[in-house]
Write a structure and sequence with these properties.
- There is one protein chain.
- 73% of the residues lie in helices and 0% in strands.
- The chain is mainly α and 282 residues long.
- The chain has 2 domains: 5-39; 71-243 and 253-279, MetI-like (MetI-like fold), CATH 1.10.3720.10.
């Protein structure tokens, strides 16, 4: 089979891009592979020279010993609780606000949307002190409420922007037909818009899960008792107590990192579709 010059250049370009992707993928996976390798080693094999990626004997018990050294099951339950209610809150509140900006025409709509986007430039560290004082005054410190309740008030401008851009691409004819059939605004939002926004909603849910799973700063500020700590705080607490037990620390780190990877693998089709279609909207 003969290829033209343009086809040959196209194949070379694809091969080069795939090679770059493989190299970058390997670079991103290297820290995880090193953590897994260290988590499977016995304490006596941690500093072997030359480095052995899989030293024998393989210490599978490190995962059990590291997980039970601190109440990580409780930390996991706390994190899952916060993530579940936070994801629901973000999806509901941000989709409602995004629907208003995308489908309802009102005065100063674009100005208010720009103001909303401008809040993304304000880091959480700037507002953390007044937030702490407010939550302390109403008795929410050392509870899950400061981490969950803001999500029910469209706290993330990025999620609103993502959903708004997706909703802008939904044809107006569908909404007009629903109104002719007697649907009010709430009915259109619930029966027409939300079902069509499943890829974008899945993307928001995935982003929110990763955020709540990896969040360290806000739980550190608002939660003080060990019984309510999240899994990231538990990991830091584990490191402070078992600072020299690197094999146990790496074993627990691998366990903590796995849910994010599994959730992405399960939801990657919706995630990629949501990002791709949203990026094409005007």
């Amino acid at each position: 089979m003969k290829y033209t010059r343009s086809e040959g250049m196209r194949w070379l370009t694809k091969a080069f891009l795939y090679a770059v992707l493989v190299v970058l993928g390997a670079a991103f996976l290297l820290p995880f592979a090193f953590a897994l390798s260290t988590g499977l080693k016995a304490a006596t094999n941690l500093f072997d020279i030359p480095l052995k990626w899989f030293a024998r004997p393989i210490a599978w018990t490190n995962f059990v010993e590291g997980w039970t050294a601190r109440p990580f099951s409780r930390f996991l339950r706390n994190t899952v609780t916060i993530a579940f209610f936070g994801i629901v809150g973000n999806i509901v509140s941000c989709s409602i606000v995004a629907y208003g900006f995308a489908r309802i025409r009102f005065a100063a709509r674009n100005v208010l949307f720009v103001v909303l986007l401008a809040t993304m430039m304000v880091p959480v560290h700037v507002t953390i002190v007044p937030l702490f004082l407010m939550y302390h005054r109403i008795g929410w410190i050392d509870t899950f409420l400061p981490l969950i309740v803001p999500s029910y008030f469209a706290y993330s401008a990025f999620y609103v922007f993502l959903l708004r851009q997706f909703m802008l691409g939904i044809p107006d004819d569908l909404e007009d037909a629903a109104k002719v059939d007697g649907c009010n605004r709430l009915g259109v939002y619930w029966k027409i818009i939300l079902p069509l926004c499943k890829p974008a909603l899945a993307t928001v849910g995935l982003f929110a899960f990763v955020y709540y799973w990896n969040d360290f700063f806000e739980p550190l500020v608002f939660i003080s008792s060990e019984a309510r700590k999240t899994i990231t705080l538990g990991l830091i607490l584990f490191r402070g107590i078992y600072d020299q037990e690197w094999h146990l620390l790496m074993a627990v780190t691998v366990i903590v990192a796995m849910p994010c990877a599994l959730v992405f693998l399960v939801a990657q089709r919706y995630f990629i579709e949501g990002i791709t279609i949203t990026g094409m909207k005007a």
